[in-house]
């Protein structure tokens, strides 16, 4: 982590800012009415009025309603008696239950059932956001105890907190949580969408595995908090939270494994851990299949193994990323910074489900914030990866299009570029110049191929300097060059070709004796309506051979009339 402190202090600042926002949002609440809570397991034949009389006659086990409490998942449910301490109010109040799990909760007033609701309930009762709420009308005196019944559920019970607030206080608290949760889920889904776009654009499944992982994690937190039910109103998910949550948990580990293998380059930096990490990508979906078989033994085994394997896999990913980072994997650092807080919070939330850390009811909300933080950090890393991939591809394309010796366009790239110009129509005249160095074979034979290469580089530089940036200049092969000029007529094309002949002659590259210098013969062809790239180059090539036959070191224009020749002897060059 010393690397992060030295090189990436903004990571730490971002982590601190996210933690402060999480604690503020999770802990921001209005003033609440002080209450006491007692509980006992429900038994068959229980009557609410009798439970209240029993609670008044003898003390029942109590718990702090502001701290997380795991109530026993008894076969008949669990009763909770809620008493309001004075001073009492006469206004309507809201009784809210946070993190109730997937079971239903009923509210009684003596013998009367006031309401029954659950996180995935879409019936008439009031719906909270991330909690169950009950409206306590003003007709029920604040001095009268209330009775909650947590119904038995096949799913594990939640670690609950209970609060009694006025409506203004509740709405303020609810608004804070909605802003916080909506922002976190929006960040996760936005980053997932961005990753999917990169997957399609770059055709790199690293981004696809990351998007799939983010979607699974957002679904897990949305189910646990009830966000997918209210406010999203996804009624189709009602009753599916247990199976869907387990499947999303297993798949999130699988997708995280596949993502981390490619993103942190485990194959390259930690090859010994490749198989264990890949094993989690395979084993976790198998657990889903075992749960779906309906065979009690297999489903029970899958349920028993799920959470331990999730924590073990997360720990393995951190170890693999830490080793890869220490060995030079740049992106492993992004993975560590994003993943480690999430791992810590997952472990702490798991400990809460076992009855520990009851005084930290904000931890489940912190897990949502950690998901958003991880999405931001890893998306920054993925963006950096996308830029690197784009740069590498551009560089590869540049190398593929360039002549390695002169840096000009090679024959293929020049032909493609010229074809694009010709496809623009006949609005502007186009000229093609075909160059061939004179006596170049003698230069190679007398001074060696290294001297010939230096001559080619010098000629290419001279031609590039004389031509416009918009002119297409390329090496056609050997000592041959080709240029396409737009917006020039025949006369201008010949003037340019003559100037280029003189420019090459002034390089003073000696062929053999001191009196013989390197020159160039140039053929010029003007585009006609029937010309394509091939025919245009062939006519320029033919004109170049006419220049050779006419004495070299000159330019010749191919046309329908007489061949034009402009000499460029040594005297003119001087």
Automatic annotation (TrEMBL):
The keyword Transmembrane applies. It comes from the Bacteria. The keyword Manganese does not apply. Residues 1-31 form the signal peptide. Keywords: Membrane, Signal, Transmembrane, Transmembrane helix. It catalyses: 2 GTP = 3',3'-c-di-GMP + 2 diphosphate. SMART domains: GGDEF. Its EC number is 2.7.7.65. CDD domains: GGDEF. Residues 428-560 form the GGDEF domain. The chain crosses the membrane at residues 177-200, 207-223, 243-261, 273-292, 304-324, 331-354, 366-387. PANTHER family: DIGUANYLATE CYCLASE DGCM-RELATED, REGULATORY COMPONENTS OF SENSORY TRANSDUCTION SYSTEM. This is diguanylate cyclase. It comes from Luteibacter flocculans.
């Amino acid at each position: 982590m010393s690397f992060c402190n030295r090189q990436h202090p903004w990571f730490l600042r971002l982590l601190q800012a996210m933690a402060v926002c999480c604690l503020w949002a999770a802990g921001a609440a209005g003033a609440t009415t002080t209450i006491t809570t007692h509980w006992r397991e429900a038994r068959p034949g229980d009557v609410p009025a009798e439970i209240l009389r029993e609670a008044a006659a003898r003390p029942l086990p109590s718990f702090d309603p502001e701290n997380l409490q795991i109530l026993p998942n008894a076969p008949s449910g669990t009763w909770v008696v809620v008493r309001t301490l004075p001073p009492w109010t006469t206004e309507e109040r809201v009784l809210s239950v946070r993190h109730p799990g997937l079971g239903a909760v009923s509210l009684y007033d003596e013998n009367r059932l006031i309401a029954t609701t659950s996180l995935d309930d879409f019936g008439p009762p009031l719906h909270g956001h991330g909690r169950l709420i009950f409206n306590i009308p003003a007709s029920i005196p604040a001095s009268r105890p209330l009775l909650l019944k947590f119904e038995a559920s096949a799913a594990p019970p939640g670690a609950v907190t209970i609060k009694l607030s006025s409506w203004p206080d509740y709405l303020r608290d609810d608004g804070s949580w909605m802003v916080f949760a909506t922002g976190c889920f929006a960040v996760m889904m936005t980053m997932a969408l961005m990753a999917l776009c990169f997957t399609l654009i770059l055709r790199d499944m690293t981004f696809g595995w990351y998007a799939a992982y983010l979607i699974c994690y957002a679904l897990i937190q949305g189910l646990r908090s009830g966000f997918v039910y209210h406010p999203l109103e996804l009624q189709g998910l009602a009753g599916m939270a247990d199976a869907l949550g387990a499947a999303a948990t297993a798949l999130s580990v699988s997708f995280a494994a596949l993502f981390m293998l490619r993103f942190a380059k485990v194959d390259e930096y930690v090859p010994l851990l490749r198989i264990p990490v890949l094993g989690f990508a395979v084993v976790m979906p198998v657990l889903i299949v075992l749960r779906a078989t309906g065979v009690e033994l297999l489903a029970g085994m899958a349920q028993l193994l799920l959470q331990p394997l999730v924590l073990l896999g997360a720990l393995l990913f951190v170890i693999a990323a830490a080793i890869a980072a220490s060995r030079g994997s740049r992106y492993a650092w992004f993975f560590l910074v994003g993943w480690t807080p999430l791992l810590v919070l997952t472990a702490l939330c798991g400990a809460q489900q076992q009855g520990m850390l009851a005084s930290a009811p904000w931890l489940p909300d912190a897990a949502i914030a950690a998901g958003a933080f991880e999405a931001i950090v890893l998306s920054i890393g993925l963006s950096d990866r996308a830029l690197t991939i784009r740069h590498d591809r551009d560089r590869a394309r540049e190398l593929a299009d360039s002549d390695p010796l002169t840096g000009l366009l090679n024959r293929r790239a020049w032909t493609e570029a010229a074809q694009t110009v010709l496809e623009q129509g006949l609005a502007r005249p186009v000229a093609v110049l075909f160059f061939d160095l004179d006596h170049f074979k003698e230069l190679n034979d007398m001074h060696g191929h290294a001297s010939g290469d230096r001559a080619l580089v010098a000629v290419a530089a001279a031609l590039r300097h004389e031509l416009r940036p918009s002119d297409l200049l390329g090496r056609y092969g050997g000592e041959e060059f080709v240029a396409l000029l737009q917006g020039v007529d025949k006369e201008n094309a010949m003037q340019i070709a003559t100037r280029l002949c003189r420019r090459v002659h002034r390089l003073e590259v000696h062929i053999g004796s001191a009196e013989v210098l390197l020159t160039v013969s140039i053929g010029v062809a003007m585009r006609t309506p029937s010309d394509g790239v091939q025919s245009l180059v062939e006519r320029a090539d033919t004109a170049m051979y006419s220049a050779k036959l006419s004495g070299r070191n000159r330019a010749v224009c191919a046309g329908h009339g007489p061949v034009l020749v402009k000499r460029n002897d040594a005297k003119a060059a001087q």
